[in-house]
Amino acid sequence: MNRILSLLLLALLAGCTTPPVTYYYGNYSRTLYRSKKDNTPESLVKHRQSLENIIQTSETKGIKVPPGIYCEYAYLLAKDGKPEADRYFSLEVKTYPESERFVTFVRGQLKK
Amino acid sequence: MGSLLGGCVTAVTATKAVKFPLMYQEKPLTIFVLPPINSTTAADAKEYYTTAIPQPLAFAGFYVLPMELTGEMLKGQGLYDTELIINQPLERFGEYFGADAVLFTRIKKWDKVYAVLAANLTVTIDAQLKSTKTNRVLWEYSGTIVADLSGQSNSGNPLVDLVVKAIVTGVNSATADYVPYAQLATTKLLMTVPFGKYHNRSGQDGEDKFIDQKPEPTKPVEPAKASVTAK
Prior knowledge:
The structure holds two protein chains of two kinds.
Chain A: H1 2-17, H2 28-37, H3 41-61, H4 69-79, H5 85-95, H6 100-111
Helix pairs in contact in A: 2-3, 3-4, 4-5, 4-6
Chain B: H1 2-6, E1 14-15, H2 16-19, H3 21-26, E2 30-33, E3 37-38, H4 45-52, H5 54-59, E4 63-64, H6 67-76, H7 82-85, H8 91-97, E5 101-114, E6 119-131, E7 137-148, H9 158-172, H10 179-189, E8 209-210, E9 217-218, H11 222-229
Helix pairs in contact in B: 4-10
């Protein structure tokens, strides 16, 4: 009985500490803030590196790249006329099928 | 046992299912976050808050459309002002962008207070999540978060120490860095939101009790506890 009770308590406590969703965001919000606030070429480069780091680290760790990151990265590539953009737009849709309509819209805007 | 659980829940006022039944009916997944409406005089509040929204929302289990792009797409449609959208029908957000719901936030207060032994950031926010299918308010929040900027907490929790370190660095530099605090504020703000599909307790958190917001100092230990309190 005691054993069951302690197992139950352990389970309760474990429930308290298990992270429910795992994403790796690196420096995302800080570099994004700086890129918005300073809007300098350096701050934009740093933000792009931060996106690259999130993608690489998540893939290495075998976890999902957070919502929107592939898409944001693809958009930056597309604006620079880089053909790899397509690959990252597709990865967003593959990882999060619900993004399809948005990604289609964004790509439509880019063609204009 | 009561005292053990007491570590998780300190005060009880409502459950998610009772307070936000429409979230369980409509089960929104894709969220379009509009730029915050800044009703304060702090010019940088909007940028801080904008950058602090997506992460906690994603951790609550939602698919958050990338704010960098949603902002640009809105401008492309001639929509610059969140104030002008708030009372409009939202169906087009579903039609064009595939969003199930739109998140509106208003920053009502953003005050930094420095004293000899303490530094606080007080943030007051109103938030509303509205359905693009029915235009109904699915979830809303109004409250104040006080973050302790002194960075003196010593938690032993690696996540927390990272936050604290970031803050200490920030406060020492010429432009103080409030990003972690803005994020903390959003994390607290989202503690009452029923989890989205990607959270492992999605659909099972209806009985979760939550605390109605009262302004009380919060140490940066809180982000780690966010997952604790929900249990």
